[in-house]
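Because discrete structure vocabularies remain unfamiliar, we first show an illustrative case, written as a sequence plus integers encoding its fold.
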Amino acid sequence: MKNNFYNSVPVLTLIMVLSLFLNSCGTASNLKWEQMYNGKDLSNWKIKIRNHELGDNFANTFQVNDGNIQVRYDEYTNFDEQFGHLFYEKPFSSYLIGVEYRFVGDQVKGGPGWAYRNSGIMVHGQDPAEMTLDQDFPNSIEVQLLGGNGKDERSNANLCTPGTQYVKDGKVMKPHCANSTSKTFQGDQWVRVEVLVLNDSLIVHYANGEEVMRYNRPQLDPVKGEEEGQLLKGGTISLQSESHPVDFRKVEIVNLEKVADDPVKLQQAIDKLMAEKRIPQQ
């Protein structure tokens, strides 16, 4: 019995290790890209445009044509600060989102100068039903999509903070916008921006497969003189209408909730996802 017991220990250990390994690999392999946009219509999305009721797609701002979500202003006479957002139907907490987009055409009359070739992916956002009628942006973390103007350097996948702030290098950051380390993307080329969002701990921006920014502890603006605000653990995802026409041909997500509470599995999943450098075809 003694010999049989000790001889069986390595076998049992091997089985346990193999089982854990396969379970971890299975979890990572089961994390797939899910399409948030069905390529046909906006049935899974909600529209909120400033000074218009939730669900009112004023002047047909958000359209689907040629298989793309299109932001257009053909029916506007003047932009008049009518900032809009297209909200996905459900919130998320820990995930990797990927968006492929391009700027096209000319900015609508009345659009602010800073909004030239400017759009955004809003994450950890406010419920659009809670926005006031004249609210311009949802309280959220904005991953700014910024195209080149043909002469100046304009980094992409920057960070803006409507109603929010964050922590970077151990310091609370209160400026409204911060530039990434991204290069400038000129012209009407397709660009892919990805955002890794891990609950209230970490957010990382990627532009065409390159990490360009990371920061921690996304939070609402503080109240009552406090230094830090309420941490954002999740929220809505939305795409912006900021006065320049833009096409979105792909909006997809990997939901990391199943592994979010297991640091080892979460890191395995992230390593596997980011091992591929996803660059859009033109």
About this structure: The chain is about 15% helix and 35% strand. Residues 201 and 217 are 5 Å apart (CA to CA). The radius of gyration is 22 Å. The chain has two domains: 1-30, 32-274.
